[in-house]
Write a structure and sequence with these properties.
Layout: H1 3-8, H2 11-14, H3 18-30, E1 37-41, H4 43-53, E2 59-63, H5 76-86, H6 89-92, E3 96-97, H7 101-109, H8 114-123, E4 128-129, H9 130-137, E5 160-165, H10 173-182, E6 190-195, H11 207-221
Parallel strand pairs: 1-2, 2-5, 5-6
Antiparallel strand pairs: 3-4
Helix pairs in contact: 5-7, 7-8
Length: 228
């Protein structure tokens, strides 16, 4: 569905389940002749980690990634960024919550030109799934493995690069550092790099350098030939 349609009727987001989302990507990759490079941003970074843990991909890049289960870091700026949903976890768990322009600027585009903030706000954001976000936040408090769980000791996992934005409010570098440190596989490769910018640095001027660095690292460290 297009952005405009989801803003008008966010019903599909209300029912969104992270496991189902992961399964969609897995079915798509099952059809490929070669393992792909998996790249995900924010919640997509957590999905990237889950897919790698499940044996998919020749290599992965997680951009400003959301944490997987077991990462305890929750900086104040992250709490403030997600407060539109977190302030009412019970009531919002079964809703799709949108951001105001002011909330979007703080969480995603802080430090970018006002014109770009408005342009990206009109183009990209859709209501966020309360179920997915609250499930991610409470994963460390619930018994058993939750939807964002990965095996940090998985030696069969493909190489993974974390890319952090220095000014990121919603997923600050401290989250990426903790996420990367949790990977304890003896033979797996996990690295992290930083670029100046906020959470949506991939839409800002200079995004090409981030893309080039991510692709260069992925091609250099892929454990097998990648799908074109």
């Amino acid at each position: 569905m297009e952005v405009e349609a989801l803003r008008e009727d966010p019903t599909p987001i209300v029912d969104l389940d992270l496991k189902e989302a992961v399964a969609v990507f897995e079915r798509a990759m099952d059809e490929l002749d070669q393992a792909p490079i998996i790249i995900g941003h924010s919640a997509g970074g957590a999905i990237t980690q889950i897919l790698l843990d499940h044996g998919y991909g020749a290599v992965g890049v997680a951009l400003n990634s959301a944490p997987t289960e077991g990462v305890p870091v929750a900086p104040w700026s992250q709490i403030k960024s997600t407060w539109p949903i977190l302030h009412n976890p019970i009531g919002n768990k079964h809703k799709a919550i949108g951001f105001t322009l002011e909330q979007w600027e703080y969480a995603f585009t802080n430090g970018l030109p006002e014109e770009l903030t408005r342009e990206t706000y009109e183009r990209y954001p859709i209501p966020a799934s309360g179920r997915v976000l609250i499930g991610s936040v409470t994963a460390n408090l619930m018994p058993g493995h939750q939807d964002t769980w990965v095996d940090y000791k998985n030696d069969n996992r493909a190489p993974l690069l974390f890319v952090s934005g220095t000014e990121d409010h919603i997923m600050p570098p401290s989250v990426q550092k903790s996420n990367a440190k949790h990977d304890k596989g003896k033979t797996t490769l996990t690295e992290r790099i930083e670029f100046e910018g906020p959470h949506l640095m991939i839409a800002a001027a200079g995004w090409e350098a981030i893309a080039d660095a991510a692709l260069e690292w992925a091609l250099a460290n892929a454990r097998e030939p990648v799908a074109a």
